What does this fold into?
Amino acid sequence: MIQFEDVSVTFQSKEKKIDAVKNVSFSINDGDICGIVGTSGAGKSTLLRTINQLQKPTEGNVLVDGEDISKLDGKELRKARLGIGMIFQQFNLIGSKTISENIAFAMEVAGKSEKEIKKRVPELLKLVGLTDRANSYPSQLSGGQKQRVGIARGVANNPRILLCDEPTSALDPETTNAILVLLKEINQKIGITIVIITHELDVVKKICNKVAVMSKGKLVEYGETFRVFTSPREDFTKKLADQAFNLELPDHMQQKKDEPLLKIIYNGSNAESAVISSAIKRFGITINILHGKIEYITNHPFGMLIIQLIGKEEDIEKTIEYLKENTYKIELLN
It folds into this structure.
């Protein structure tokens, strides 16, 4: 488990003091894939780096498996860091070393024997699907392959925790998806706890079971990813969730007053139900579908639909009541 207890990080320059992280407290359980999201300057990366003490808190404590890592130094800190792997946005591979040598280097620094390294490196190459590139150099690899090497290096010493600092922001969508699938497989195979810093909400929706939302150094909201995205409690989180689903109508449509415009929100199993077809048959009205999508957040369906109701006033009222009863939530847009 990772525990943040009133963690603050302050940077002092000649001109001013910057409060990068302000009194953050929450816990990440063993085996979680936790995303930390927020806009630029929210304090995400600073908070992440307190876990392996690349950044020491100005105030508060960071506990890993009950040990206050923020109080460690020297040999004790180096030992604790062996249990915490890290991968980076820009890969940070050594250009003069082969892929095998890059992975082996992480183990050499940790003091592993030549025998251990010789056995472990092929296992890691197989894990990340790069067995055939063992003797290649970083310059010969694609961005996705480089990040696979970064992942192999990050888990080389069997850490309990893997920290990922914007691991997919330099990759195209298809490669991003492949890397996320790989991270999830590793999490499931070896039970490693993964903490991901990202500004890409699709990354969180895809693989994170927990999400922490940050703004201006503060923790705004934290919880199960599905709950946070589908039932956000704070205004800032609601704005992020709206951006994630991106359902907007032109102004001229929203200003129409003659027929009701509704946003229907489906949650869980009802996202896959034929509620609209049923309403048309029951009440004999016309339903014009203007916009919509179904998302899968950590494999749970969540849908949004914007519709226009056309028909007799009495039938429209009955339809609205029916939709209220058979969907998660509806909102009148005009």
Summary: The chain has a mean pLDDT of 90.
